[in-house]
Structure formats: C-alpha cells, structure tokens
Specification:
3 domains, two-stranded antiparallel ribbon, 6 strands, mainly alpha, 7 helices
Length: about 180
Amino acid sequence: MKKLKLTREKREQFLQALAESGSVTAAVAVAGTSRTRVYELRKTDTIFAADWDEAEEIAIDRLQDEAHRRAIEGVAEPLVSAGKLVRGDDGQPIMVQRYSDNLLLALLRARRLPRRERSVRFQLPALRSAADAASVMAALTAAVAIWRGDAKRSIRAVEAGGGLYQGARGARIQPTAASS
C-alpha cells in the first residue's frame, strides 16, 4: 500500500490553498501532491478531515462575501454602446456600476428556507379532559392556517374550538360575531 502521509508543511500548504481557492485540484497543485493521496488521507485521518472541512467553510465564506459585494455594491464596468467603448470628455472610458440580481436572489435563497421548511413554534395547551381535544385541534388548525397566511380559515378554526389562540407570529385571534 502507498504511503498516505503528507508532511506537515504539505498539509498546511494544501489546506491554506483549499481555503483560498475552494478547489482541491488547485490545492494539490500548490502542495505538490495528488488528489488520490489527499482524499485517501481524509478517509483515514479525522483531524485532517476536520481541517479540510474548516478550509472549505473558509472558502465558502469568501465566495459568499464576494457574491454579496457583487450583488449589493456592484462591479464597475466600462460602458459599451454599439460594440464600442464609450469615452468621456477626458478620453477615459465611462464606467457604470452593475449589480447582479441573480446573485442577490441566490443569496436570499441560501439564507432563507422555503416557507414550508421554516420552523413553526406552537405550545399546546394542557389537556384536562377529552372535551379539550376539540379546542386543541382548532388551535392547531388555526396555527397552520396563520402560518400559511389563510386568515379566514384560522378564524373559523378558532371559532370551532371556541377559544383564544396566540400564534407563533404573535397574532392573537379571538372569535367575534364580526369574524363569521
């Protein structure tokens, strides 16, 4: 079997390059080793595997920072019209700030879970009798309806249970004659 060890210096070079580039191929080139060797070492050395994961997290953070910069701050690009560079009175190219809506949307999707995957907090009332079950079911139905944004259904559910419900979003619902 081949020797899987990498010198401490080569490990550090690999991990530093991985953190900077996010690319295993680029990192093994910098460290002067092979992809096979580092992947095999990752399987057998838990410390190296943890360091690898940390290096990847650093690389992802750097990419996210750059995506944020491009989406929010924008990137200066020369103005081109009819295939030609537009120059100002001083002869210098006119620069315009370009923003990336696609990057902004990708950042939002990465940060915010889809509505159905977000957590919902709900505290169930204590059941003291079998009759309490109907009001608990109504409260649950109301909570789900509020979460889905269906106010009419939530009011009907609370009315069916005959009680007051305070939802996860802090909304208080109490049946009234006007809500029917």
